[in-house]
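Priority: low. Protein: Thiamine pyrophosphate-binding protein. Input follows.
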Amino acid sequence: MDVLKTVADYMAEALRDLGVTHSFGIIGKSICPIALKLVDYGIEFIPGRHESSSGFAAGGYALKTGSLGVAFGTSGPGGTNLLTAAAHAKANNLPVLFITGHQSIKELGIPQCQDSTSYLADLADMFRPATLFSKLVERGDHFSTIFNHALSIALGDKKGPVHLCIPFDVQTERLEECRIVLPQRERLVSYANYERVISAINASSRPLIIAGKGVNRSGAHKELVQLAETFNIPVVTSPGGKGAIAADHPLYHGPVGVGGCTHGDEMLNNSDLFIVLGSRLSDMTICNLKKENHPDQLIQFDVDPTFVGKILTSDTISVGGDLRDNLELYLGKIDPSTITRREIELSNHYTEELPVLSKLSLASVMSTMSDLIPYNSSVFVDDGSHGFNAVKWFNVKKPGSFVFDAYFACMGNSIGMAIGAKAAAPEETVFCITGDGCFMMLGTEINTAVCKNIPVIFIVVNNMQLDMALKGMEKTTGRIDGTIFEVPMDAVKFAESLGATGFRAETQEEFASAISQAVELNRVAVIELLTDRDEMPPTAHRTLDLN
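Result:
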């Protein structure tokens, strides 16, 4: 006699068949049936130290695989701790399935510990604005329809996080049948404006490509270079688009916006056409663009139409759908005889003078780091002054290997993301550049990496303060309340207490030696960088007048 499968069985089997190899979370009673079934079906469970980091790890896994990441938490606070990671995944178009527990449906109305119902903390409701889809699964016979819908949205044209809140008794409910449809990738293109796009490029005298995060997310690095070289158009990158093109490409003119270079921002203010590839054009990108210098026309490729044509005063030509698919189509349709190739008179020497300081300069460290690490590396960068120093000074050699979020910008996200990415791609060397503020939030994930033998190299910039906040507040208000760590952390001792190898660097030579040793060891390592507290981050121009 056949034994009927449970809802948890069907979910675990479907995720395995979808190619999911790892899940991330913290286990508890309300989520046990699904969490344990994932293990039974061959999906390795990476237990985190805080749910938000597990959510970030699932995001890193999704980014590296291009497929679904899975994170779970218990009911109540286990679920609410995942919310920040869900919003981060939404901001970065990362397909992550967030699964949270819930008390048994038959016990609704009975006060229980870690309540996820509408009587206390309704997780299905809370996750709706932070995801593309969120639903409470109230009955087993509803599961297949809801789960199929969630998968199709997470892996659909826009990509992003979804959330299912599944009660304990629904997880264990046995079903006679449950049809799961695994989504297949489709080419998502928009051809309607092809003629207008090509005509606008040919008619422009000073076009500029702004490569955003969407280039990295869609893997359109080859297509970006082909577009630039076909028309001989200079390229700049947004903070999140850093690494969309190699730093030494002759058409690359540097980063713009916060963490950008003067040369790139001058090009923004002197172009008559922006070709925007996967960027929302947030304040972090166009903070130095003057309103009177908005270009005459804007071509904006973006899978999400929310902000297309709404930020600049330019006449906008919109191209929806997947960026790589669209660029492949457009480049394949171009008639070479119709192309207007223009000569670029501007030099692409965008590098600025490094600061001269009495102690270790973070800018100097970032400017040399890419020469010290293997080519087959990924670098995950946290938010803060260290992040924007990396945007400005790090020389990306391998397109797509630099991961930074300046949009939702949650501190500590890169710690978990690096762990998830390394789990997905064990052959790569994975680095995380973080700060002491970020590290004190979520640095205990070092122990997760140690216990599961996920050898990420963490670089902790320790200037004993919330540096970006301190410098910005000091400039705008003259005050620095709450930005100094009166008792600074010892990142090496902290790392060693969690089982990692620790290195301390106060000079360029010590940093280079630490990188070499950490790569050679191939185990979890933390390199503490003691940098000059007075170094000005490349963020000071983005300030507000609070008077």
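Residues 543-547 have pLDDT under 50 and may be disordered. The first strand starts at residue 5 and ends at 6.
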